[in-house]
User: What shape does this take?
Amino acid sequence: MCPLKQTTNYHMKLFFPFAVLLLLTPYFLFSQNNMTKAKEIVSKMTLEEKINLVVGMGMRMGAMSMPGGAPNVGQTMDKVPGAAGTTFAIPQLGLPTTVVADGPAGLRIEPKRENDPNTYFATAWPVGTLLASTWDVKLIEKVGKAMGNEVKEYGVDVILGPGMNIQRNPLGARNFEYYSEDPLVTGKVAAAMVNGIQSNGVGTSVKHFAMNNQETNRMTVNVIAGERAIREIYLRGFEHVIKEANPWTVMSSYNLLNGTYTSQSYDLLTTVLRKEWGFKGMVMTDWFGGKDAVAQMKAGNDLLMPGTPAQRNAIRDAVNNKTLDIKILDENAARIVAYILGTPAYSKYVFSNKPDLKQHAKLAREAAADGMVLLKNHQSTLPFVNIRSIAVFGNTSYDFISGGTGSGDVNEEYTVSLVEGLQNAGYAIDAELKSIYSAYLFDYKTKHPKKSFLEEFSNPTPYASEMLLENSVVSSKAAASDVAIITIGRNAGEGKDRVVANDFYLSKAELKLIDDVSNAFHAKGKKVVVIVNAGGVIEVTSWRDKVDAVLLAWQPGLEAGNAVADVLSGKVNPSGKLAVTFPVKYEDDVTAKNFPGKEFPEKANAGQFGIKSIPAEVSYDEGIYVGYRYYNTFNVKPAYEFGYGMSYSAFEYSNLKLSSSAFKGKLVVTADVTNTGKVAGKEVVQLYLTAPSVKLQKPSEELKSFGKTDLLQPGQKQTISFVLEPKDLASFDTNSTSWIAEAGTYTVKIGTSSLDIKQTATFQLTKELVAEKCNKVLSPQVELNELKK
Ligand code: BGC
Assistant: This one.
């Protein structure tokens, strides 16, 4: 077959839809014109109206109501039941109520309403970690577009996502809502998502800005970090999304950063976000976040959510006693008005309450299969060939987890379990096992009835421990079935970080199940496949040698079982790659020493919602060495490295070319990728850069660009091209508070993972280059003992 040559320039590809979007949507929500109009409207407001606008209307959670204290003439918090919050309407000035609702994996609203036969289910999309593992920004933009359509058709104005904090430590409960340990993957994926969602003319709220990397003491923890780590690791993803996708809103985080609540930090919300990056939109707090409403106004945190009467009083008092300049309140209010002017609510969009959920489910299935990562495939166990009957083990196989818990959960109509998916694909499932597991799970659920959101939040129901089966049952299944599948399930979410025992590590019962099933099936010359159904990282080295194949299915949304079956059957050739490292042991992760930090229980107080408020601090001593930047630089061998993932096909890299051997403001890198396998497949091509270390230490390599090939037929070749700009070469120099690229030799490494580099080439930078000068802000108040090479 004659190889096809195609050229893909990923920077160009991102740019083109962006230009089209500018024409199609109210993209310049915060344009000069809109701001002028907004300011005019604010100039007609009374002080009370301004206060009503900057403080949200409060919140309803099931039967519990927490009004924000605004006069409720003509107001409603109930336009969309189950939404997280609303803004105040001022009908005489033409301003309607607007509605904001969670979350990163799809719209979170109440699916059923009193005295209403209709349903309001939304699509549970694959979780953020899975989407990032696709490394496919075109696909993610499509998902965003469909997600945004549900936002619009259910009458919501802003979706509270994407979540884009760095997955600093494997135990972070909300890692499933976030994308990666790497800021470039995070930023590019988030930008694609925001562009997709906002192409509908609804808004996003990129969250949680910034450094909300743990749930333990999330509302009190002071994150102590160095400026370089803050800029290069924790802010960089947000910087990408602000510059490449113009999100309508940003949500500040709960934590303090170097001694100041992020929602009260002028340096973060105004100096960096607005002045340095050019953000024109509105900032809202996370729910009940921060302490001081007046400091929040001054910092540029325009909207306090969900809004409390105390915040209204504090702002009114401060204006009256002149500790808050009315001009500041006017600016906050104007940014909120400018946002309102761009909403569907303002243009009186007649929403249908009938998004095309069937079509969206198809896309959810496609995206889910695309982000699954094949971790192990001994002797081509997968895809299944000549397999008809399957013995399916593990509780989660029968109760598959579509997504995590808390505000990142979605109220979908159904989740296709693994067994359902396998049956839909035509496999015969062992009926006895199915009935044993179903009875066990039914019994567990009867003994642990569903709790309210808040009860679950403060005291999550543990999942059923893995059921132990008689040896005779397992061996009879080995005799009767062609293959065994075992699912290992994990769930987590807002409010409570994961733990090491029986969570990061497998439980004794799970390990015994793997032993028993592997022994019995291998004795009969049959294979065993493990499916990992988790939102984050687990330990794999102690058990992976016992089984033949491991598929990391993540939490794949409502079409879960169908998508897993697509990969197992070979209908889809896996092309997902890890956007987070799988360590051998928990302690191998450099952040393990400093997670979740120190508590000061003697200073604790009652807190909110029955959750004690304990002051705490966490020191990011690892500095910039987060994730693969640590493992690779310090030669700590992970179980599976960043960027890793197998395919049913094989790819060859060739013809790496640089546009020049010296960097002169820009460099174009091209490489050819050929499918040398027997089946069609896609490959994620990763560009890492090793920079010279003159006065600054550098990680051994850092991801600077990536692309995904089209579906390549056997023998087909594609040229992938990347562009390197000055800032891609640069590191943040704390002394000069600027991004500098040091002079010397740079090595471009094109790889299929961060450790599997296929081709390298070098170029020179003859003179140090200042890529950007920044402000001296966000400095730590105490001395930090940051890790050095
Ligand atoms: C979460 C946010 C969420 C908000 C509204 C908070 O508890 O941290 O991510 O958007 O609630 O539900």
Summary: Confidence is low (pLDDT under 50) at residues 1-27. The longest helix spans residues 137-153.
